[in-house]
Specification:
- The structure holds 3 protein chains of 3 kinds.
- By secondary structure, chain A is mainly alpha-helical.
- In chain A, about 70% of the residues lie in helices and about 0% in strands.
- In chain A, β1 (about 200) and β2 form a beta hairpin.
- Chain A starts with a helix and ends with a helix.
- Chain B has 2 domains: about 25-75, no CATH class; about 90-295, MetI-like (MetI-like fold).
- Chain B has helices at about 10-15, 25-55, 60-65, 80-85, 90-120, 125-140, 145-155, 160-165, 175-185, 190-195, 200-210, 215-230, 235-240, 245-255, 265-290.
- In chain C, about 45% of the residues lie in helices and about 15% in strands.
- Chain C has helices at about 1-25, 55-70, 85-95, 105-110, 130-135, 160-165, 175-185, 200-210, 225-240, 250, 255-260, 275-280, 315-325, 330-340, 350-355, 360-365, 380-390, 400-410, and strands at about 45-50, 75-80, 100-105, 140, 140-145, 145-160, 190-195, 245, 265-270, 285-290, 300-310, 370.
- Chains A and B meet through α1, α2, α4, α5 and α6 of A and α2, α5, α6, α7 and α9 of B.
Chain lengths: ~375, ~300, ~425
């Protein structure tokens, strides 16, 4: 494939590049290229084809009797007027609310924890970090099972709430949206006609504004519980690297702790903040494990996410083209939002080297961000 | 937003010598106790669910439903564990998870460090292309691949086999970047000497550079272990045989009631507890590596 | 500027790798899975089942093993953790299981894409199946696969609570009004009178009793928002509003059997599958079964069934057909029935089954007026959507819910 021609080309050149290194370079990267190519790049190409085809799930999608149907699958989802469009709209609504709540909350909670742990006496630090980080280590399946128990039939959480005099909802069985519920407190139970009569993606504007359902809220709490530890570590690593000088100086200047945090610490944390927000955004648009394990999209379709819908469309309903189309639209959403966020939070005057350091982290998974931080720390030891 | 708001600090103050700490003052003590108290409360919130998890797995079904919050089972029973280990496929799931995790971890450590070293140190044509390709690949969300990954694995004849479960997980771009950035931080002079002595590229990498990369390797080990142990979607699309079910897939089917009717929570929570143990062990062994990474020279 | 150039370079590289990868793979290996499998009389069979539990898995495994040793064809049984997903993967890979369970709502999809062998007319015991079951597995006028067994809904009654409320056998409800009355009598501080899952697969029975149904009898027209269906759901609403009935969700139970077995409800609406669960999980509960009460249009209930699908890509269809004939034979069905509580799909086994299971006879007797669930392609999505709205039936508007369902159903029925 391309690899061999590349190595030939390099070995024939006797310029500044030593031939031995050229060959070795390709050989060293070959396993990664082959594996990622076969299991990441090729699949994406295949999925793209399937999303434009009428393949119904029998035999190969490349066989002669599968035909190209253009944007039909996408049209059905974006303007078909049928159930497919409505389901896609519902899944987007559910996940958008999830993202909207989880990303800011997990960032705020992890930053708060980091600042607090950073202030704690040295002896307690290790314990607190372990306690807060532990949920991030466990598998999403195990946590979901635990959550089903705590918020589900036995209502352990509601028992706790009742000690506080709060009458908890029937978490995983409650499809009502929390924004709607909030409005209902003021007697608003149905929206104005302009919101209820107009639709986007088969869902009325009023329903777009429903907020996450109570069941989804339980998943939102779970996401914060399981991710805040990871991000806390990132923030702690960054906090430790801040110059004490500036803090001291601000102290001398008479700024109180709060002002110091807002005006000195936070601006210095911007690169980490950027990483955390980006990771959060990418992660939260791909909710699948919890739904597959926990609610299978119920109650009332309020926990269906695009990822889960894509899966069920293909594997349960033989709508492979639609499933792939949903996956691609999700892909586009994630890429676009990430780019928008990068633009909004762009940092001027950063050297290219530093930018590159954050680039991988910005598109990696949770754990790799942690690793990037850990390695960044380790460098000092080696030197 | 503009760049960092520069606080108006007089030049004198910047050069001021650091004030010596003459023991914490009273105000400082109060502040610290408040911080401590808040942290304790939050820590309890974070730990309590896991304690409930373990306690419930030793309860009877009836008691789990009646008093979900108690941390001491009234009638201590290991029935859930007996059922799990003696009359279900749980041991098979466990074995599969172990096999996959060991292979994936070993493979990732080797391949990621190889590629990371090449990208950091070796000058070859197309290096930037490979680098950018990796970045592009990393931006593909995993769930997009659910459907096509199955198709590819299937076409390669690896469906429903260990190879189909392991090989696709062997490389991860993030790990390559971690290794790359680490190797870049090692001074090149070390290798130069080896080169002068006439060692080959691989030998230089294997016996000189790699041993220096222990911290980064440990990071990769932890991440690979966690990643493959907790992986679910890949196993959903790469296998169907009960003999190849991993813990995540098995426990998920246990939870969604396809294999058990009703809500046998002690059983499910016992499964969740057991599947958490290995990652917890790895975490506690290496936690100093992860968590104390930032405990550098900061002394109070 | 520099960056965008690099981005394009990367994208170009990706495209190249994709193209090369596809070209490399599309040669020989991507042309598999064409229609019409080669037949090989000796090749072993695989059987994939969506099992309800250990009892069912064991019974099917034993039955297949017995057939295997008498016929000389090797056959292995595996229980799926997610049947639909595994079938889909099997069909896509061109190597599906030879014999497998197919639910009524999955039939149309598999039949439409040619994954299923339409062998119904080749069955020697074809005329023995209940006609309603045959029509459930008929797609485009072709009888595809043999019903393996079936279930209907009935009313389960906790006899202790019944007696405590001062009720006797004469009080077993025959009409909606009587049902409301006994439910109210049975409701105490500790339990409700009646519990049911808020889904079409239970509430549909009330629609049937009112004379409705999601589709017309010939399955060609959508009739979801008929007045009868609205009346059925209105009655359900009135039951919930009275407080003497609750949904399983409100009771924190996974299904009616759990609410019933834990003593949270004195009556529930479930099928004959409840027998196994009561025996193994809730042996202390004493109960009896009655036919569901009649509605304004007479008696009605829903019927559920699965069939034995045979893959069109099976390497050994003849042997698979013989295996299915054996598995649906009268004797074999009776032994399945005693193993995991299903009802035989063949009429010749009815009398024996009733005398063996006197408590459960009402289920089988309900077969005469049982209504199948729609089996058009896409109907399962419509029902999923309907279920999502039925979950909040207590506060919902039946007319609006059914109008929405009608719109969705029109898009898939009669095509």
């Amino acid at each position: 494939m391309t690899v061999t021609s590349g190595s030939k080309a390099t070995s024939s050149r006797r310029a500044a590049i030593a031939g031995r290194e050229g060959v070795a370079g390709w050989l060293f990267t070959l396993p990664i290229i082959v594996i990622l190519g076969l299991f990441l790049v090729v699949p994406v190409g295949m999925a793209l084809w399937v999303s434009f085809s009428d393949w119904s799930g029998r035999g190969s999608p490349f066989s002669g009797d599968v035909s190209f149907i253009g944007f039909n699958n996408y049209q059905d989802l974006l303007g078909g007027g049928g159930l497919a469009e409505r389901d896609f709209g519902i899944s987007l609504r559910n996940n958008a609310w999830y993202v909207l709540l989880v990303v800011p909350l997990q960032t705020a909670v992890s930053l708060f924890l980091a600042v607090m742990v950073n202030r704690a006496i040295l002896r307690g630090r290790g314990f607190f970090r372990t306690a807060f980080y532990f949920p991030s280590v466990t598998s999403s399946v195990a946590i979901t099972v635990l959550w089903l128990f705590l918020f589900g039939a036995t209502r352990a959480v509601n028992k706790l709430l009742s000690y506080l005099g709060v009458n908890g909802p029937n978490w995983f069985a409650d499809p009502s949206g929390i924004v709607h519920n909030f409005l209902a407190l003021f007697g608003v139970t149905s929206g104005p006609a302009v919101l209820t009569d107009n639709m986007a993606l088969g869902v009325s504007y009023w329903d777009w504004l429903s907020g996450p359902s109570v069941a989804m809220t339980a998943f939102i709490l779970m996401a914060i519980f399981t991710t805040s530890g990871t991000f806390m570590l990132l923030f702690i690593a960054a906090l430790q690297n801040l110059s004490g000088e500036t803090q001291e100086a601000a102290m001398m200047d008479g700024a109180n702790g709060w002002q110091r945090f807002w005006r000195v610490t936070l601006p210095q944390l911007r690169p980490v903040l950027f990483t955390v927000l980006t990771l959060g955004l990418i992660g939260t648009w791909q909710v699948f494990d919890q739904i597959y394990t926990g609610t299978q999209g119920g109650p009332g379709k309020t926990t269906v996410t695009p990822a889960y819908l894509s899966y069920t469309s293909a594997f349960s309903n033989q709508e492979w083209g639609k499933g792939s189309a949903i996956a691609f639209m999700l892909f586009v959403i994630i890429v676009v939002l990430t780019l928008v966020q990068r633009w909004v939070l762009r940092e001027r005057g950063v050297s290219r080297r530093r930018m590159r350091a954050y680039l991988p982290a910005a598109s990696a998974t949770n754990s790799s961000a942690l690793a990037v931080a850990a390695v960044a720390e380790k460098k000092d030891e080696v030197r | 937003m503009s760049a960092a708001v520069a606080p108006s600090i007089p030049a004198v103050a910047q050069k001021a010598p650091r004030r010596r700490r003459s023991g914490p003052g009273r105000k400082e003590l109060i502040a610290r106790s408040v911080v401590f108290a808040i942290l304790i409360v939050i820590a309890v919130v974070y730990i309590f669910p896991f304690l409930i998890n373990v306690a419930t797995s030793f309860k009877t079904d009836a008691e789990a439903a009646a008093s979900p919050l108690s941390l001491v089972p009234q009638t201590f029973t290991t029935a859930a564990y007996e059922r799990l280990f003696l009359s279900s496929d749980f041991p098979v799931w466990f074995k599969n998870s172990v096999v996959v995790t060991l292979f994936v971890t070993a493979g990732r450590v080797f391949f990621d460090s190889l590629a990371g070293y090449a990208l950091a140190r070796l000058r070859f044509r197309g290096r930037n292309l490979v680098f950018l390709g990796l970045i592009a690949v990393m931006s593909v969300p995993g769930v997009v691949l659910l459907i096509p990954k199955f198709l590819v694995i299937n076409q390669l004849g690896m469906y429903d086999s260990y190879s189909g479960m392991i090989i696709p997980l062997l490389a991860d771009a993030a790990g390559v970047f971690i290794m790359k950035s680490f190797f870049e931080s090692i001074p090149p002079s070390v290798e130069e000497q080896a080169k002068i002595d006439g060692a080959g590229v691989f030998r230089t990498f294997w016996s000189i550079v790699l041993p220096m990369a222990r911290p980064a390797l440990i990071t990769i080990i932890i991440l690979s272990f966690q990643g493959s142990w907790n992986e679910l979607t890949h196993f959903i699309v790469s296998t169907q045989s009960p003999a190849l079910t991993t813990l995540t897939k098995g426990v998920a089917s246990l939870a969604s009631g396809q294999l058990s009717q009703g809500s046998q929570y002690p059983l499910k929570l016992a499964a969740a507890a057991v599947m958490t143990i290995p990652v917890a062990i790895v975490f506690f062994i290496f936690q100093k590596r992860i968590l104390n990474a930032s405990d550098g020279a900061v002394k109070e | 500027m520099q960056r965008s150039k690099k981005m394009w370079a990367a994208l170009g590289a990706l495209a190249t790798i994709t193209a090369v990868g596809l070209a490399g793979c599309s040669g020989s290996s991507f042309s598999g899975g064409s229609a019409g499998a080669t037949q090989n009389a000796g090749s072993p069979l695989t059987v994939l089942i969506g099992s309800s539990g250990d009892a069912e898995t064991k019974a099917v495994t034993d039955a297949v093993a017995a057939w295997s040793s008498s016929s000389g064809t090797t056959a292995t049984v595996s229980a799926a953790s997610d049947l639909n997903q595994q079938l889909a993967q099997g069909f896509a890979s061109g190597k599906p299981a030879d014999v497998f369970y197919v639910s009524t709502d999955a039939l149309a999809g598999y039949a439409a894409n040619g994954s299923l062998l339409a062998y119904g007319d080749k069955l020697s015991n074809k005329d023995d199946f209940y006609p309603t079951l045959v029509s459930s597995f008929t797609y485009d006028g072709t009888f595809y696969c043999a019903p393996k067994d079936f279930s209907t809904l009935g009313l389960e009654i906790n006899t202790d609570m019944w007696a405590q409320a001062g009720l006797t056998d004469a009080d077993i409800p025959k009409t909606w009004d009587q049902l409301s009355a006994v439910a109210a009598k049975l409701t105490t501080a500790d339990h409700v009178g009646l519990a049911f899952s808020p889904e079409y697969a239970r509430l549909g029975a009330f629609m049937a009793q009112a004379g409705g149904g999601l589709v017309s009898t010939n399955g060609k027209t959508a009739t979801a928002n008929s007045a009868a269906n609205v009346a059925g759901l209105q009655y359900v609403k009135s039951l919930l509003a009275s407080g003497s009935a609750k949904t399983t969700k409100d009771l924190g139970a996974g299904w009616g059997g759990e609410a019933f077995g834990k003593g949270l409800a004195a009556m529930t609406i479930e099928g004959n599958w409840i027998g196994g669960a009561m025996k193994s999980d809730y042996p202390a509960i004493k109960y009896t079964v009655a036919q569901l009460p009649a509605g304004p249009a007479g008696q009605g209930t829903l019927q559920f069934t699965n069939c034995w699908g045979i893959a069109a890509d099976s390497q050994n269809q003849d042997a698979a057909l013989k295996l299915v004939e054996q598995l649906t034979s009268t004797d074999q069905q009776l032994s399945f029935a005693s193993a995991f509580g299903v009802m035989p799909s063949v009429q010749s086994a009815a009398d024996q089954w009733k005398s063996a299971n006197p408590t459960f006879a009402p289920f089988l007797e309900s077969a005469d007026f049982a209504q199948g669930v729609p089996n058009a392609k896409g109907a399962s999505d419509v029902i999923t959507d309907l279920n999502s709205q039925l979950e909040s039936i207590a506060t919902g508007d039946p007319q609006a819910i059914l109008d929405q369902t009608q719109k969705n159903l029109e898009a898939v029925v009669g095509k």
